[in-house]
Amino acid sequence: MERKDFIEQVGLSAASILIFGCMQACSKSETATPTQPGGNNNNKPIDFTINITVSPYTSLSTAGGFYVDRTNNIIIARTLTNEFIAVSSVCTHQQVTLDFVPNDNNFFCSGHGSTFSPTGAVTKGPAAVALKKYNTAISGNNLRVFA
Ligand code: FES
């Protein structure tokens, strides 16, 4: 192998190692561990809009329906009085995913029976920490959820 070929091969290997290392570092920062009760990450900005007439959000087209956004760990519900509410979908007791119970107008955890008000406050334990609440704004069929 000539010196020029050797240097080219070593240079390519070194560049590959650097790029691979950078990609690993970048991906780690995007999958940060949740740091807040309820499973959401305080550092992750929440601001998205969904069309409630389009799958998988159509459950929000009718009063009493709800949808769990597993990407952001947010449960979005439409109350029986047609208000849209959104809170963290992760129970603050032991991280079970919550359901919305329209007739009780609360969020229910099937794990150990905790309930939370529409604002995320604990209304029945064993959970002791409130859920993070998100803002909602409806415009036509578009529902914005934001911190
Ligand atoms: S995990 Fe929700 S009450 Fe225990």
Question: Can you lay out the helices and strands and say which pair or pack?
Answer:
Layout: H1 3-30, E1 47-51, E2 66-69, E3 74-78, E4 84-88, E5 99-101, E6 106-108, E7 115-116, E8 122-124, E9 133-139, E10 142-146
Antiparallel strand pairs: 1-10, 2-3, 3-4, 4-9, 5-6, 6-7, 7-8, 9-10
This protein binds FE2/S2 (inorganic) cluster.
Could you explain how this protein is built, in words?
- The chain is an alpha+beta fold and 147 residues long.
- The chain starts with a helix and ends with a strand.
- 19% of the residues lie in helices and 29% in strands.
- The chain folds into two domains: 1-31; 47-146, Rieske [2Fe-2S] iron-sulphur domain (Rieske Iron-sulfur Protein).
- The chain has one helix at 3-30, and strands spanning 47-51, 66-69, 74-78, 84-88, 99-101, 106-108, 115-116, 122-124, 133-139, 142-146.
- The strands form two sheets. Strands 1-10-9-4-3-2 form a six-stranded antiparallel sheet, with no helix packed on it. Strands 5-6-7-8 form a four-stranded antiparallel sheet, with no helix packed on it.
- Residues 12-42 have low confidence and may be disordered.
- A hairpin with a 5-residue loop joins strand 3 (74-78) and strand 4.
- The chain contains one helix and ten strands, in the order αββββββββββ.
- Bound molecules: FE2/S2 (inorganic) cluster.
- The site of FE2/S2 (inorganic) cluster (FES) has 11 residues, from loops.
